């Protein structure tokens, strides 16, 4: 992969996209953990959950879509190869993996674009 040209304007665009991605990754990861707990209680322990617990999956789904949008936004601005996009997008579907992906991608992008 070629090293992208780092102009101050591009650096700012990437920094803004990275901030959005980091927030989306954490929110998605937290809601995925909540969803996992709900599923364990419901299917693993056969607990009767309140009606509102049904919506946990839908809220996670909404945040996952925002995570995908943030991934596309950052990947476009950082000029990621397709494999990196796909692996980063899938990280929002496995508990704890979005936190790891956020850490790794943040480190890579900060190094590539000389971000603080």
From TrEMBL:
Bilayer disposition of the protein: Multi-pass membrane protein
TM spans (from-to): 20-40, 52-73
Cited InterPro entries: DUF3817_TM (IPR023845)
GO cellular component: plasma membrane
Predominant location: membrane
KW Transmembrane (keyword) present: yes
Signal peptide residue numbers: none
Keywords: Cell membrane, Membrane, Transmembrane, Transmembrane helix
Domain of life the protein comes from: Bacteria
Subcellular location: Cell membrane
Residue ranges annotated for the DUF3817 domain, each copy included: 18-106
Pfam families linked to this entry: DUF3817
Entry protein name: Membrane protein
Organism: Corynebacterium aquilae DSM 44791
């Amino acid at each position: 992969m070629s090293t992208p040209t780092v102009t101050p304007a591009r650096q700012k665009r990437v920094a803004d996209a990275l901030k959005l991605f980091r927030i989306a990754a954490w929110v998605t990861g937290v809601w995925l953990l909540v969803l996992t707990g709900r599923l364990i209680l419901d299917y693993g322990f056969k607990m009767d959950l309140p009606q509102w617990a049904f919506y946990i999956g839908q809220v996670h789904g909404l945040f996952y879509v925002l995570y995908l949008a943030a991934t596309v936004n950052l990947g476009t601005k950082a000029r990621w190869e397709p494999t990196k996009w796909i692996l980063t997008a899938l990280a929002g579907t496995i508990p704890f993996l979005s936190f790891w992906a956020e850490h790794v991608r943040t480190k890579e992008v900060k190094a590539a674009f000389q971000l603080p």
